Amino acid sequence: MLKRYYGEFDFIYHRFETNLGGTSLVQQWERCIDMVAEEEWIMILGDDDTIGYNCVASFYEHIREVEQQKINVIRF
Predict the structure, then answer these.
(1) Residue of 38, 31, 36, 4 whose CA lies nearest to 15
(2) What share of residues in the chain are helix, strand, coil (percent, to 5)?
(3) How many Cβ atoms sit within 10 Å of the Cβ of residue 70?
(4) For the segment 10-47, what is each residue's pLDDT rounded down to a tens digit?
(5) What is the pTM assigned to this prediction?
(6) Helix (H) or strand (E) segment spanning residue 58
(7) Rounded to 5 degrees, what angle do the CA atoms 64, 53, 66 make?
(8) What DSSP state is assigned to residue 48?
(9) What are phi and psi of 26, to 5 degrees?
């Protein structure tokens, strides 16, 4: 899938040598979050997670409230 969209948008793909997700999902998330550079928002998806067709649009429909209330973690 990454090859299909190569060049259409910027992304970084990193394959870890060890799979922490099977033993500690929190450690897996933490090492992924540690790789975040200058992104304002990130989304963490598990291996079986999917998002709805309007997920990003819905997020931005509520961004004003998020910013006003200084929310920094959203379970969406």
Answers:
(1) 31
(2) 35, 0, 65
(3) 6
(4) 888 888 898 887 889 889 889 999 999 888 899 888 77
(5) 0.66
(6) helix 55-61
(7) 15
(8) T
(9) -65, -45
